[in-house]
Amino acid sequence: MLDKILRLGKETAIYGLSTVVGRLLNFLIVPFYANVLLPAENGVISNVYAYIAFANVFFCYGMEPAYMRFVSSLEIGDKKQNFSVPFLSLLATSFILATGIYFNSDALASLLDFQPEQHQFIRYAGWILFFDAITVIPFASLRMEQKAKRFAVLKIFNIIINLILNLILILGFGMHAEGVFLANLLASGFTFLALSGMVLKQLTFRFPAKLYKEILKFGLPYIPAGLAGIAMQVVDRPIVKALTNDDTLGIYQLNYRLGIFMMLIVGMFDYAWRPFFLNHSKDPDAKLLFAKVFTYYMLGAMTIFLTVSFFIEDIVRINFFGRQFFPPVYWEGVEIVPWILLAYVFTGVYIVFVVGVYLEKKTKYLPLITGAGALLNIGANFVLIPLIGILGAALSTLLSYIVMAIGIYFASQKFYYVKYEWNKIIKIGVPALILFGAFLLFRPEPLSPAGFIFKIVLFVIFAAVLFAVKVIDGREMAEARKIIRRILRLSSV
After folding, report:
1. Which tens digits make up the pLDDT trace of 219-251?
2. 404-444 pLDDT, tens per residue?
3. CA angle at residue 303 from 352 to 296, to 5 degrees?
4. Buried-most residue among 153, 218, 446, 481 (CB within 10 A)?
5. Nearest 5°: phi and psi at 473?
6. How far is the CA of 160 from the CAs of 16, 98, 188, 291, 391, in angstroms?
7. Helix (H, G, I), strand (E, B) or coil at 324
8. How many helices (H) and strands (E) does the chain have?
9. Is the dihedral of CA 280, 281, 282, 288 positive or negative?
10. CA angle in degrees (0–180, nearest 5) for 368-291-276
11. 319 CB-contact burial (10 Å; exposed 0-12 / middle 13-18 / buried 19+)
12. pTM, whole model, 2 decimals?
């Protein structure tokens, strides 16, 4: 069993390579925006992308998970049909939606409370959504066919092109916020062109109505579920703006992005997890395997949570060539980062627990679960932001993900019971939270030698506790060493 988990780790690394490199490259744009654009401009960009995230749910309407579910079993139709049906559906609907956005950009700008001259941003957003939607199925196909290298190269290609165009359009042509959207649009268009060859090879116009009906039945619940899920991620932005101002929103958004350290891990895991549990769901030890995966996920996630939480204030104050990583105006918002990291930990918990709902085709429960989280998020934002500012927005996000993880757990257990190792989970989580509480209580001075030593001591205590309570027993560690040595020998051949 451990060899399967290690294989999942390997697949996570391979499929997540593009996520890691891409997110890190994208992360480099954060200090660039902070130093080149005004906080108000960052606030406007943040607001547009919040609406893009919501619109993306309608543009994709659950076709990616539906495609992966049905192409893995080929219950109806052949491989080409399972690719072409969702792809052609997305091509047609996304073109109609993007065209509608283009010709109604003025009205939409007014409705969404943008300045009249910012309607062009809405037009860019529509076509960004179009190209992103029609690449969903090709990228999902690469994942299901385990073409990791090509997947990674294309994802990284998109990010690099986007970064280069940002530099050219903002610094070279002085386009500011408009340059951000135009760069994204061009990068998305180039990415689709790079995928077009594989699309043509898999395309067929044989369109089984029964397959389309089943795909829609599986995928459409992802619209309300996706809207609620996106709400938990981005609805805090317009609420922060409404209750404060664009400057505060810009500070909140750029500090929120520091959650990338945990988002990378969760994103990498998500890429590998869905193909993994689909491929192993019929194994006789599948449920025990899934329980072990959850334990190892929590071990890794809480370790990263503590590490980043301890050192994030040092990172943002580091001086690069006479400039801080973040200018001082953004430092006041760093307090939200640990809570955003913890919210991403619970995002990963949700991803693990969703296996039962996914395998048993009970996606109708997703809107109820994510809807509860979204409503809590919205309500908590309006209560907490006036009391404690942007920290209230971060805590609202965390609470919503906790509720969503609990909800998906009970729904999945009802249809696909897994006996998780809760005793080990407690042994991981409780010490981590106690040490995090000690860090918040003493709050060592950033970039100070004494503070650095204090943080290292806390981390060593965490590692010592994990070994003392035997979260991973000696037999598992010995087996892991044998498997790793075998993998290394095979890799060297």
Report:
1. 888 888 777 777 777 778 888 888 888 778 888
2. 999 999 999 998 999 999 999 999 999 999 999 998 888 88
3. 35
4. 218
5. -80, 170
6. 16, 25, 11, 38, 33
7. strand
8. 23, 2
9. positive
10. 80
11. exposed
12. 0.73
